[in-house]
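User: I'll paste a sequence; please echo it back and then give the predicted structure.

Assistant: Echoing your sequence first, then the prediction.
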Amino acid sequence: MGRKKSFTVEDLDVLDLADEGKSIAKKEGLVYIAEGGVPGDNVDLLVTSKKKNFYLGKVTKYNSLSKKRVIPFCNHFGTCGGCKWQNLNYTNQCYYKEKNVENTLGRIGKIDTSGIKSIIPSDSQKHYRNKLEFTFTNSKWLTAEEIENSEKIDRRGVGFHLSGRYDRVLDVDTCYLQADISNKIRNELKNFMIKNDLTAYDQKLKQGFLRNVIIRTAESGQLMVIVQFGEDNKNNIKKTLAHLHQEIPSITSLQYVVNPKLNDSYQDLEIKLFSGKPYIEEKIDHVTFRIGSKSFFQTNTKQTVKLYNVIKEFAQVKEDEVVFDLYSGIGSIGLFLANQAKEVLGFEYISEAVEDAEVNAQINSIENARFFAGDIKDMILQEKLSSLISENCKPDVVITDPPRAGMHKNVINSLLDLKPSRIVYVSCNPATQARDIELLSPAYKVTQIQPVDMFPHTHHVENVVLLELI
């Protein structure tokens, strides 16, 4: 059986969920990871490859359907690469996310998870994102029906990359992830492109005028749009932006960037302001944040309030205590806690984010927060940090919110040397979080675990862990 390139396994019971929207089935002691399937389904599976401990395959037939299933509300489900859990009812989405955190921390971190708190669900399962990025294309993905009439179809569109396909873009009519104004902006740009015979960027030829659009919304009602152009055609840029400004006057920050590079990254490019202010503002509880074109900010604002309150509850910062905020970004967590602390020191490797953090401290009249730019794994060992500690700035509490890769070993070793009383570890990747916690275990014990659902209809989960000095 193992020598065949592909084969079918019938009558498989789907038992669990894996990463990236895949499912797990078992039969006769063998494990199968499947594209498609919800726990409770019985399926036939076309196995396409074998890994060390499991087979990979795709569901070809549903013999019976799980009671946990719901009808997806988006007509792009199954083609678009996002929202892969949309066919699973939300209660069970939360259940499997919490289960993933519990199993991962226990397996990798060797942590006692018996006291894990119930996951905090998202009040909104639609329109919950405050930022989305859409890509223009001159060869949009066609459905089977459209292929038959492809010669009559204008292939220009704007939407999301298909999963694993940088050169294939699904033209999206309606997306339910962001407020409906996002759909209006995207469709207005697409219609203007077609009406004025403008070109969309070709990912293979690396040429074309309209490249992508980033839309950021705020609970305050402010709205930022950044249009990325592949060509520096000043006349067409002006016409496009003037049209968008006229048709959607609610845009409070309209910006653009000309990107001739081979990739879509614009962090190293100049962003130019066309109209409005170069930022939007958002408020998290008592703190107002200015969010610029390159600023990182949690993409589910309402859940961010809940997340930060969990951090606040775990940290229990006292007025005579110093807080280190590692991977501080625009200073959002540190500034949120500053009114409780003696002093907050934030460390961030993106210099523009540190500049944003300093501005955010100023506009909120927060005088006990300082932010430093540099590579955290090196900076936490530098003379600058040593001099800060010599000024009685040894941390009592550390908040760490690293990227998915987790913390560098230098950072972990520095924490073991500094010995803060409490470490609040925030992570979007329970696996690397568990790995880091295991490395901290000689000196720290996990006392609280709180998963938070920031991204309904996906497998992603945010998790907050409190570690206390033994």
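The longest strand covers residues 7-17. Residues 90-109 form the longest helix (20 residues).
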